[in-house]
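Records of this kind hold a single protein each, on a pair of labelled lines. With that in mind, the following record should read easily:
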Amino acid sequence: MAMGSLTDKFEAHPGQDSGHDEDLLWTSFAEASTPEALCDSWLALQCSSMEGVLCGIVLLGDPDQGPYVPVATWPEPSTDARHLAEISERALKERRGVFSRADAVVPMAAGGRFSYHVACPVEVQSRVYGVVSLEVAPRPERELKGLLRQLYWGIAWLQNLVLKQSGAETTRLSERLKTVLDLVAVSLEEDDFQLAAISFVTELVTRLGCERVSYGSWNGKKIRVHAISHTSDFGKKMNVVNALSAAMEEAVDQFSTIVYPGLTGDNVLVDRANATLADMENGRSVCSVPLVHNEKVIGAITLERSGGSTFDQDTVELLETLFALTGPVLEEKRREARWLYKKILDSCRDQVSKFTGPGHIALKLVTSCLVALVIFFSLVTGEFRITARSVLEGAMQMSVSAPFDGYILAAPVRAGDVVHRDDILAILDDRDLRIEQFKLKSQLEELSKNYRKAMAEHDWAQSRIVSAQIEQVHAKLNLMDEQLARTRIKAPFDAVVILGDLSQSIGSPVERGKELYKIAPLEGYRIILKVEEKDIDEVARQQKGNLVLSAMPDQAFPFTVTDITPVAVSEEGKNFFRVEAKLDRNSERLRPGMEGVAKINVDERRLVWIWTHDIVDWVRITLWQWLP
């Protein structure tokens, strides 16, 4: 009951009180059905029960932030209480009851004296929801404090009102949240998009008491209807489907929720398509809600109710909250259910729209730079070179073998040592040879005596026989001298020892012809390149190139290809061809066995071909392998 109706029934002046009037006020207070009516009745009761109250006002609003607006005034709803603004602001700021003397004299006060302003905040759970302010006739400060205490006790009714409203709002929000979560769970249960959409719209019909719910996606030009509640198959040419698409597109075009019949106070929206749909179904209520994600329309949902049941503001708010969560879920499922080529086309279309549309400056700059680079490398040429692992070998290699059977006496060199001409490589034990030499010399002396004796006796036949024996012993001695000389194995030229280490074999026997060392001359090297099978067709004799050795990465050695071996060698799962090349210049730092990377210069080609020909060749081979 409004305060204006109360004043029509009785006069409530300051200081007056009657049992009948108080009963009417309490009856109005008990029967109040709205917060405004309750505040009106409460303020009338407070002001009537206090002596000397001139006027009063109740301000309520959002806790701790406002704005705080008048919800009740006394003695009349039209009472001007702006002069209580200052005391109200002070009570809100200090969060406690305050009173102060008014600046102006009140004529109706006894003797034309100053009135007083009293204010008390409405505080619930340490949050200020409003303030109650009164103007009272002059009185001692002790009575003002008593009036303030009485006002504190009376504000408990307003605190109870706030608690009830908060509890009701909390319950309403909890129920709405539960409904939203349940419906979101329904949209997530099914992995298949079509099943998820049908389950969702069917659940909406049950939860919201609708006759039919339809869902469609927006492709930038039109709506495509994907699901209609309680319907698994529907034709795209049906009149109802066309009407549903038009109603959804109407909401999408205006980027707003359309309710037909419209809600009171709604903005003016075009609802012709929704009205047509409602008329087709014998006057149903229609609500079309666009689905928005990242400020972009992704679809729409149309709900229909029959039997005169309309969509109120709470339902619309629930739908907007629900679809803000479920819309992206359904859209993601729809996008995942597309064919692969559609995903590729849509992705390309999105990138093109970003590149040609407003914004996305970083994407445009990066794309422009990439396009410029592709054009540049497609036109500019560079030196095409074939890369191959390489090893350095001597132009000539010589084996040093044992000249005869014997034993190792000394071995002063090993692999990697540089030796000069006539340097000792190894020494064989010559003791057996020298014993044999001494034996032969003894035989020679004995034969010489026999020869002289035969000559003295003029035994010419015997002298010729002994002479032949002497020559035979001389031959054996010469052979023995040669073998003794060959016990000291010397380097035939300046070289580097590339194979052999007898330092751990002193005293070991060796057989004639066994390889002791392998040496290579210090000058004259060749390069052995291992060229992969896929690149061998580009290699030809007399091609130039450069070699970088692992031991000397700061220096490149030019070379010329001399020979291509037509035999492939398999290493590490790949086929290699042996290509020989000759160094164009030598260095004292070079040693046989050094490894590195060689690059053979082929010709000038486009940079894009140089960088992509391996991939292109691999694709060609793969296609050739799999194509019938």
Q: What stands out?
A: The mean pLDDT is 81. The longest helix spans residues 141-189.
